[in-house]
Each structure stands twice: as structure tokens, then as C-alpha cells.
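Translate sequence into C-alpha cells.
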Amino acid sequence: MDMGPGSAARLRCAARIRAERAAVGEEISARLHFAAGAQLLNSSFANLPFALKEAGEPYLDIHPADAAARGIADGDRVRIYNQRGAFAVKARVCDRVRQGVVAALSVWWKKLSPDGRNANEVTSQALADMGGAATFYDCLVEIERAGAG
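Result follows.
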């Protein structure tokens, strides 16, 4: 069945997602997306006091239903993890993200993070099948209250 232009690429992408889910196991249940911090301009200003003051601290946006299922409240420190690694940030329980999706800043410098880690800890080093681009803007993770596990 032809699904139009790019259909082979979409099928390869869907196969990659199924393979990633199978590799990490059923305990991984959220798709992490990364957002650039407006105050940090893709990390260009991440070491400047005025930008850090405006940015506050690293956070994870999580849907209220996902937060409730994990016993996470707004402002809790949470651990985001998968088989590659982990990092910890403050939870922002909100409806800015869909259920099953969480979003974190992608540009917070490790040395400025509370635990010395950032979103790079959980991202893949694999290259996309189309154009050999990075795949780091999308990965599977689990979230728990920091210190819970």
C-alpha cells in the first residue's frame, strides 16, 4: 500500500520506534521531547547571570495524569531515566504536554545543573535513517520522584 511521498521513511521511523520500545522494555512509558530555553538561546547565554536568573532552574513538563500516576506533584524533584542514563530536574505539572509525553530543556549546561547531569544523559547516539541527522530530540524515558527508586 502506497502512503504517498515519504511513506518508506515513515515506515522505517515506525519500525525504529517499535524496536526502541522493545529494547528498553515495558517500564519505559513516556516519550521525552526537548525544548530550547528562550532565555538561554540554545545555550549561547547559559553561563551569563542575567540569563540564568530569568531561566530559573531546569524543569520537566509533565501532564497531570502522568504525574498523578507516579505520585509526582508540581515542584517535586524528579528523576528522568532510561537504559542510557538519568538526570534530575524540577517537575512542572501542566497541560502544556499531552499525556504520555514529557518535555525538558535541551540546553542546560551540565556544570550548572543541580545533579551535574542534563538531558544528554538519556539520548541516543544513533543517526536518523534520513540524512544521517541526530535523533536526540526524541527518546523514551520513565519518570519518578527523585529519591523514590
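Note: The CA atoms of residues 3 and 11 lie 9 Å apart.
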